[in-house]
Amino acid sequence: MSVLRIAVAQMNPTVGDLNGNVRRIMEWLGEARKAQVDLVAFPELAITGYLPEDLLFKPQFVNDNLRALDEVAQACHDVVAVVGYVAQSAQIKSGVSRPSFDSNGRPALYNSAALLAEHQIAGNWHKRYFPRDGNESRYFQPGQQPSLLVMNGRMVGVTIGEDLWHSETSTHAQMAAGVEVMVNLTAFPFQVEQSRSREQFFSTWAKKNGVIVAVANMIGGQDELVFDGNSLILDQSGQVVARGGAFREELLIADVSLVSVKRSGNASGPNSVRKKKPLSVVDRLLVKLPIAKGTKIPIVPGLAAPLGELEEVYQALVLSVKDYVRKNGFTRVVIGLSGGVDSALTAVVAVDALGAANVLGIFMPSPYTSQESEEDAVELAQRLGIELNIIPITPTFEAYRRSLAPSFDQRPADMTEENLQARIRGNLLMALSNKFGHLVLTTGNKSELSVGYSTLYGDMAGGFAVIKDVSKTRVYELARFCNARGPSTVIPQRTLDRPPSAELKPDQKDEDTLPPYTVLDPILQAYVEEDRSLEEIVRAGFDRVTVARVMRMVDTNEFKRRQAPIGVKITRRALGKDRRMPITNGYRGLDE
After folding, report:
1. What 3-state DSSP class applies to 276?
2. What mean pLDDT is predicted for residues 351-359?
3. Which residues contact 449 (CB under 8 A, 6 or more apart)?
4. Whether 252 and 325 share a structural domain
5. SS (H, E, C) 558-573
6. Are residues 128 and 231 in the same domain?
7. Would you list the DSSP string of 152-209?
8. What pLDDT sits at residue 216?
9. Are the C-beta atoms of 544 and 523 separated by less than 8 Å?
10. One domain for residues 43 and 173
11. CA–CA separation, 375 vs 371, rounded Å?
């Protein structure tokens, strides 16, 4: 066997939907069989979806996951499959030197890959290195003993996720045993510009070690994460032979020459030991491939073009909305349209994700709403083809003020009255959600949420925060990107040109309260995403008083962010699980 036909199934699993995930795996197995594939790789935790979190503490869920894997194994004939699943100590087939139980007395669990061949589970591998966020180490024990898949005498190694990134230790034994192909099952979430750096890493690794590499990444939205795919098959020189498309399911297939691997001599460095003698530390999983009848049908590997940065971010937002809505049983969404750029971008994303018929816009003017805002909201709805309802909040607002007047005891109007308007709007949107079963999409951006420029139980009320990890600066960039995509603009130009305003009091502008976004956003990136100190940010060229004020606003509004709806992560540090600050916190890091 000098040529191996490899397939990577870039699939979109749903966490916990074991039956649905199995059906999808079966479909891809069928496609692989039709294409006369020898080896097909599925993503990390393809059976369960990534990450099942505390479902993994339920013994029934783990057992059901094992039954689902058995079902897939029964369907594996004429093709060898490597599938991600959850293994537990009692089920493990290959040797493991770890204890059989975790620290809480439960059977030890492993983030694993199963080798499926000839209608059975022929063996497995266990992930050895976990992400630094600690989410996986909460549930899984690290694997210890590496394994090799020997297919008709040819050596195939398997790694999971970060294992390949720690290859100095995790793959040394496999490489020493003579690996010719390395399969990497992954669940890499999307992050701006990460797909390019990932591809560069795999290319460098393949070239350095003289090994063919196949990377199976999943796609799809899962709560705060969205997976981008961009799966890869690379030859031993590091050249990309096949590349999966971003944010779409597909079966990536390529023929790889094993003869050239054996003769390449490209390997160098500590990981590239090319000894062929057996090593006792490596489990060998032997699989005999059926002899192909006749000549295989020629295939042309898919080579999707990488997306530009804004297109990539936009598609991440679209898929996250589509999957969060669909996977949670909703069909329609409702959005409060203000005539501003944030709600406009949110609406455009929702229409691309769900279709215009499934997006309801609500415009809720107050005494301070400008005519331009109403005109822009109406124009946006018309261009998108969505239904728009107009519900004035002035009568309700006045009723609130009359009811509260005795308690307010003639105190002058302040932010309280501003927040009342936002909370009235939030109540109206939630009432429509309750009545019709629509999911409320909130429209707050990362800049506003970082500094608390939002109203708890008002504009923060909803089920999914589409642009929660998108700075105001990037909101404008994405809005212009949307307008440049088609033959006509979708977001009114005036929406982009007018100064941003919450319109909760006369002649209000965001910059009355906040620094200009061109100043605010770089400070927030330094403080929120990079954990820079006051002195470091000031040395970068920012005004000390402004930086200190922004830092104080961020620190004192953690209580708001903790109560915000979840939203998709696109940066390296989102406002959610990525940044876990105490609410009761006496530390400021300021010269006070």
Report:
1. coil
2. 99
3. 465, 468, 560, 561, 564, 575
4. no
5. HHHHHCCCCCCCCCCC
6. yes
7. TTEEEEEEEGGGGGGHHHHSHHHHHTT-SEEEEEE--B--TTHHHHHHHHHHHHHHHH
8. 98
9. no
10. yes
11. 6
- Pick the last residue of a domain from 510, 533, 552: 510
What is the domain extent for residue 151? 3-287
Q: Is residue 366 part of a domain?
A: yes
Q: Which of 459, 579, 455, 474 is nearest to 517 (CA)?
A: 474
Inside any domain, residue 537: no
Burial of 436 (0-12, 13-18, 19+ CB in 10 A): exposed
| 369 & 456 share domain | yes
**282 and 315 fall within a common domain:** no
| Residue 282: per-residue pLDDT | 53
Contact 125, 158 (CB under 8 A): yes
Check: CB of residue 234 under 8 Å from CB of residue 213.
Answer: yes
Calpha distance 42→225 (Å, rounded): 19
Domain contains 180: yes
Contact in structure between 337 and 459 (CB atoms under 8 Å): no
CATH number at residue 381: 3.40.50.620
Angle 544-556/517-524 helices, nearest 10 degrees?
60
125-139, 167-181, 268-282: least confidently modelled range = 268-282
Q: Which of 21-25, 107-111, 212-216, 287-291 has the lowest mean pLDDT?
A: 287-291
Please tell me whether the peptide bond between 51 and the residue prior to it is cis, using omega within 30 degrees of 0: yes
Q: What is the spatial distance between Cα 171 and Cα 157, in angstroms, rounded to a whole number?
A: 8
- Residue 583, domain member (yes or no): no
How far apart, in whole angstroms, are the C-alpha atoms of residue 151 and residue 1? 9
pLDDT of residue 274: 46
Of 328, 347, 331, 329, the residue nearest 339 (C-alpha): 347
pLDDT over 80 (residue 377) = yes
List of E strands, 30-89? 39-41, 80-88
Look at residue 264 and tell me whether its pLDDT is greater than 70. Answer: no
Say if residue 495 is exposed, middle or buried (CB neighbours under 10 Å; 0-12, 13-18, 19+): buried
Asked if 536 contacts 545 with a C-beta cutoff of 8 angstroms, the reply is no
Cβ contact 19:49 at 8 Å: no
- Specify the higher pLDDT residue, 114 or 98: 114
Tokens of 510: 């965001």
Sole residue written with tokens 């620290």: 103
Looking at the structure, tell me whether residues 349 and 277 fall in a common domain.
no
CATH number at residue 14: 3.60.110.10
Statement to judge: residues 249 and 219 lie in one domain: yes
Structural domains counted in the chain: 2
End-of-domain residue from the set 256, 287, 318 = 287
Q: Which tokens in the block code for residue 324?
A: 């969060």
Q: Which H or E run includes 387?
A: strand 387-390
Backbone torsions φ then ψ of 155, nearest 5 degrees: -95, 125
Check whether residue 444 and residue 490 sit in a common domain: yes
- The pLDDT value recorded for residue 289 is 59
* Region at 567 (left for phi over 0; alpha for psi -120 to 50; beta for the rest): beta
d(CA 198, CA 81): 24
Alpha-helical regions (H) of 75-178 = 167-170, 172-176
Q: Is the pLDDT of residue 477 over 80?
A: yes
